[in-house]
Specification:
The structure is a single chain. With 432 residues, this protein is α+β, with helices and mostly antiparallel strands. The protein folds into 3 domains: 3-203, no CATH class; 225-283 and 378-431, no CATH class; 291-372, Ribosomal Protein L30, Chain: A (2-Layer Sandwich), CATH 3.30.1390. Helices cover 25% and strands 29% of the residues. The protein is built from 10 helices and 20 strands. The strands form 4 sheets. Strands 1, 2, 3, 4, 5, 6, 7 and 8 form an 8-stranded mixed sheet that branches. A 5-stranded antiparallel sheet has the order 13-9-10-11-20. A 4-stranded antiparallel sheet has the order 12-19-18-14, with no helix packed on it. 31% of the residues are buried.
Length: 432
């Protein structure tokens, strides 16, 4: 937008181009729903203590459960000002959002969120620092004071529905806050990384990243004897049966029997492993814990090649490479299906379906979602022995020696000439 168009579109006296752009983005999701709004009084520019001009929040639902969606007005340029027309980013370049499950102590509404956001705003405007997707910060205590919540920090992500917009004053990202625990903060610091992996792990079962003050840290490992192992444990699979494996911990040369409780899935790539971990949340688990969702399209796509690539890449990112195209209808050419505008595009877990639904809506593709099958809300875990993994309800460990009555997997490495027969025997043992 050039200066002449800007002047013709907005009234210099009372126009709010930036504010209007935020409103327009929200209308695409909430239509004519009137949000509840909190305004800073007195205004920050005339001596008020709160930097953010206003915070709106919407009452909405995901899978029939109520939650609140907060959106700020004030990190970006909201009001008429011609000098911002050529800026790439509008002021700080973002506005904050927050999705929150109702909490039992918030009888008078979640007003504490307003103060939390204003505290963050004071830090931003005082320091001149800004946030980007996958940044994180400790809150210096519980994010909601006077509660027993375990959430003591915040991670940031691009809001799954609002994303990024262009305004007359530059780009604005809607950065969503997500509450995290002390243990999760420590795990990020230990790996010297950002919060991307943690966010993606939570998104598997919580695609909108709705913060829950009652959420407790589950952790990567199940409690019990498995704690004698960790991600630094190196070992060898000595024996592999349908319901258990016998492994050797090379550090102390001790053998252990790992029993599988209700095994569902496995993949064995190597008998040697470097690290043992158990996850309660992982892309491999979702299809065992939830009913499938089918997405059936009924509209011709304008750019089927582009849409196909976007869906594939988004699912690959969502499932972190573990379930790349498992749930797309690969029995039929996806591009051809999108060109013809009819057919079952996706059949798989609900979080992946939600990813595809958002893309289809963006491209104005009409579709129908159907729930197929019924899973009794079972919870599973995945045990990693290096790159090998087993999915089961639980695992029990006991000290053991390799069974003399069963064929053992050799404890010495087979030479290259014998590798093929070695793995054939292993695969046959697993099948039997």
């Amino acid at each position: 937008m050039n200066k002449e168009e800007y002047r013709a579109t907005y009234n210099a006296e009372d126009a709010t181009p930036g504010w209007d752009a935020i409103d327009d983005a929200l209308k695409k999701i909430y239509n004519d729903q009137e949000p509840k709004h909190w305004a800073a009084v007195p205004h920050y520019s005339i001596g008020g203590k709160d930097p953010i001009d206003g915070i709106s929040f919407y009452e909405t639902y995901h899978e029939d459960e109520l939650y609140y969606h907060f959106v700020t007005y004030g990190f970006s340029h909201l009001y008429y000002d011609e000098k911002y027309l050529d800026d790439e980013f509008s002021n700080m370049g973002f506005e904050l959002t927050f999705r929150l499950k109702p909490y039992q102590l918030d009888d008078n509404g979640p007003t504490w969120v307003f103060q939390l956001i204003q505290n963050i705003a004071r830090y931003v405007f005082k320091s001149g620092k800004w946030f980007e997707p996958y940044h994180y910060m400790p809150a210096g205590g519980q994010i909601r004071t006077d509660s027993d919540t375990s959430l003591t920090g915040l991670a940031f992500l691009l809001d799954p529905e609002l994303g990024e917009i262009d305004t007359p004053h530059g780009k604005v990202q809607f950065l969503q806050m997500f509450g995290i625990t002390d243990e999760e903060l420590a795990s990020i610091k230990d790996t010297n990384s950002d919060a991307e992996a943690l966010i993606k792990q939570h998104a598997i079962n919580n695609p909108l990243l709705i913060s829950d003050l009652d959420r407790k840290y589950i952790g990567n490992h199940n409690k019990g004897e498995m704690y004698k192992f960790n991600k630094d444990t190196k070992g060898t699979i000595l024996e592999r049966q349908t319901t258990y494996a016998i492994i050797n911990d090379l550090k102390n040369n001790q053998s252990y029997k790992v029993n599988y409780i209700s095994k569902q899935e496995f993949s064995i790539e190597s008998r040697s492993f470097d690290g043992i971990q158990i996850f309660n949340e992982h892309p491999l688990l979702e299809e065992h814990e939830y009913s499938n969702t089918e997405l059936i399209i009924s509209t011709i796509a304008n750019e089927p090649d582009l849409l196909s690539r976007e869906i594939f890449q988004s699912l690959k990112l969502h499932y972190q490479g573990w379930r790349t195209d498992n749930y797309l209808n690969t029995e039929y050419d996806i591009v051809k299906m999108l060109s013809e505008g009819q057919g079952m595009l996706y059949r798989g877990p609900p979080s992946g379906a939600h990813v595809v639904e958002l893309i289809l809506k963006k491209h104005n593709i009409v579709f129908k979602a159907l729930i197929r099958g019924k899973i009794e809300n079972d919870k599973y875990k995945v045990l990693f022995l290096g790159k090998n993994y087993i999915v089961a309800k639980d695992f029990k460990v006991e000290k053991s020696e390799p069974s003399e009555s069963n064929e053992k997997i050799e404890t010495t490495s087979p030479d290259e000439a014998n590798k093929t027969s070695f793995w054939n025997r292993l695969i046959n043992k697993i099948k039997n």
